[in-house]
Fold this protein.
Amino acid sequence: MPHVLIVDDELNIRRVLAAMLKREGYEVTTAADGEQALAVLQKTPVHVVVTDLVMPRMSGLVLLERAQAEFPDVPVIMITAHGTVDSAVQALKAGAFDYITKPFEQEELKKVIAKAARAHELERQNVHAAAAPLVGASPSMRQVYEIVAKVADSPSTVLITGESGTGKELVAREIHRRSSRRDKPLIKVNCAAIPKDLVESELFGYEKGAFTGAVGSKPGRFELADGGTLFLDEIGEIPVEMQVKLLRALQESEFERVGGIRTLKVDVRLIAATNRDLKALIADGRFREDLYYRLAVVPVGLPPLRDRKDDIPLLVEHFIAKYDQRLGKKVERVDDEALQTLLAYGWPGNIRELENLMERSVLFADGPVIEGASLPDALRERTPGAATPIAAVGPLGAIAAPSGASMKEIVRQAQAELEKELIGRALEETGGNVTRAAKRLQISRKSLQVKMKELGLRGGEGEE
């Protein structure tokens, strides 16, 4: 169950919100100010932060800025009084996931937190993607760089396509960074994280009284991105009935809030991304052809890692440096056997899978060199040129998946295998001591115990 951190200087509010969320099944931690909140974030895995805007010692905006820099995968929800709504909108432009105003309905807060938790679940494989650079010198990546350089400062809509884990969000951020809009907001929307009945209000905002629970007006993501860039990730998940409204907003640069009659005009550069085959969705009647051509003014196709293996040594070097710093290690390189194994593997999870593997390898490395023998057996068993059936491979290599299993089922099983191996090794190396294993894995003892129960693992005698 997701772990929510509540940050508010008023004790009663912390107690009320904690009790409400615990009834919903959430794990809850509270903090009285931003400094306490950062201390919690540094020690405990948190999925969602709910923070007051105005607090002593460290305001909600400063906390948001620090969280964005240090924990960019954790959604931050702002709670604000009506008189400071402008500051809340400023927070959204600075990267806050959402905001609600006092007094608020408990159901409204529950929905926003549930949406944020779902977004975190979808994004959790992309930890620190915001700070990661594009890495690669292969011909296919040089072609991507050339396209980015040519279109970055134009107003043209860009459609980024590629398999999951190929770095589509990084390309979107690089386009924004190189444009003249770089000092304006880059607003990201994960379309897969939004319930279908909320997509319109999420994109275009709503007026007071537009629907039950709309106790005030609220700007949508198009308004927040005015003058900047709007990145619609997983664009293939937009409901068909919403696609015509999105098309009009793109063509006319105007729209109305839900429940509103005033037409709003904005200056927004749109970038969309998908790992779906939009032309197949068009054939099935699930995606509008006119919207597709409006989005794909500039198509950017990202190659899978298996088609750019020349970049693997550069990526390995980059991830070793990244996780050396984050984990306090002093790993310098991989040995020749390990590099050959990495080059021979099919990488169905693309760069994301390679990054996860390198984080694990750096974490458990006993010296300055990652040896081939330390790589997972399933990875080392892959032979050069061997086909890698996507339905049978996860982050650890060959995963026995039921015939006809969906991608979600395969990913879920692969994740469970990876977690089981990491936890099993941590327990082995700490003599079965759950507390020490949790510290080694940098998760809370309670979270580790829950995972051990889920995976059928047991600690030794020294669990205290």
Remarks:
- DSSP finds 19 helices and 16 strands in the chain.
- The domain at 132-303 is CATH 3.40.50.300 (Rossmann fold).
- The longest strand covers residues 76-81.
